[in-house]
Amino acid sequence: MLKFLPLLLLIAYGFAIWFFSAWRMKQDLNERSTPLDDARLNPLLDRLGAAMDLPRIRAHIYEIPAINGLAAPDGRIFITRGFLERMENGEVTPEEITGVVAHELGHVAHGHSKRRMIDFAGQNVLRSVLLVTIGRFLPFVGPWLINLMLAAMVARLSQKDEFEADRFATALMVKSGIGAAPQISLFRKLEKLTGGRRANAPAWLLSHPALDRRIAAIEANRERWKDR
């Protein structure tokens, strides 16, 4: 049993780091958010709920200027104030915001936050083991290669999550009668909305898939769902 103690301590450390990070996020969201109650969005959120045999989907406003949506580990959905301000300015439609909510619901439905918790703990263990084994033989290149490999693995898992959430959102938007067009139109304008910033990292190291790949996947999913 004692020989497994270092490994068990590493696993416990990974979970402790994730729980602390989740706790800090929850505190920040509690302090900087308010319930979303918008006359243009409420009927659309009603339709999302009805499509799932639920009451109106509840969302919250995260009071930060960034343009984003997120699903908290506790299952709450947040849309940033920056996103809603773009809707106020006419740059984003209520249907497009609803598509973001549907996407975040996809993350909740697939349990991505819990899955990432397990992945995060596993990555810490794997990194430590590889650094002790490979890193000792390749003192300079080894740690760099290990971190690169793990970053690519994390990016692959994250991109898979995004495709799953998009697929869920497309099905929900089609079933609700809103349709998948708002998902596609938002992605086509997203780069402009965020200031045209492009990541310098290779595509296989990015947390989100390229926009053209996401649009193509949504179009394919829309064809699959439109006759159901």
TrEMBL record:
Gene3D superfamilies named among the record's database cross-references: Metalloproteases ('zincins'), catalytic domain (3.30.2010.10)
GO molecular function per UniProt: metal ion binding; metalloendopeptidase activity
Cofactor note: Binds 1 zinc ion per subunit.
Residue intervals of the Peptidase M48 domain: 36-220
Assigned GO CC terms: membrane
Gene Ontology terms describing biological process: proteolysis involved in protein catabolic process
Residue ranges of the TM segments: 6-23, 125-146
Keywords for this protein: Hydrolase, Membrane, Metal-binding, Metalloprotease, Protease, Transmembrane, Transmembrane helix, Zinc
Cofactor requirement: Zn(2+)
Family membership: Belongs to the peptidase M48 family.
The name this protein goes by in its record: M48 family metallopeptidase
